[in-house]
Design a protein that fits this description.
This protein has 144 residues and is an all-alpha fold. It is built from 4 helices and no strands.
């Protein structure tokens, strides 16, 4: 059975995006399993910046992955944010079992903030590419 060309392209893109997300999550898991990470101390609380950037990237990867199955909408935002936030929480919990590491609410919060920023960027990019209203703005309320 031959599928339409758009189905094949979308499926391949979805598989690539999902694979990248899985590899990225596995990398975060592996890094979290290390007793310590060799990073120079440049400023106080720099680990919060690392968490924010890491989950900013995860937010983008998760958005691109879930977008294959969920149409751009508030549901996509909630699923992506939930995934990243729950993964961040599970990562902190995992670290509580690693010698030399500990779970931190502030780290989880930085993870979630990073995901929100990544999702916000994707909302901005995709809302400017489509004719659909930006779900963050209220300009389209009169259209309902």
């Amino acid at each position: 059975m031959k599928y339409p060309e758009t189905f094949n392209k979308r499926s391949i893109k979805g598989l690539i995006n999902f694979s990248l997300l899985i590899i990225y999550c596995a990398t975060i898991f592996w890094l979290s399993d290390q007793p310590s990470l060799p990073t120079p101390s440049l400023f106080k609380h720099q680990d919060k910046l690392f968490h924010t950037v890491a989950y900013f990237i995860m937010g983008i990867l998760a958005w691109r992955s879930f977008r294959t199955f969920i149409e751009p909408s508030i549901i996509l935002v909630m699923v992506t944010l939930s995934f990243c936030s729950i993964y961040g929480w599970s990562d902190e919990w995992h670290q509580s079992f690693v010698p030399g590491r500990f779970a931190s609410f502030a780290d989880w919060l930085a993870d979630t903030v990073g995901a929100v920023l990544g999702i916000g960027l994707m909302l901005k990019i995709y809302s400017s590419k489509s004719d659909q209203p930006n779900i963050v703005s209220t300009d389209h309320i009169d259209d309902i």
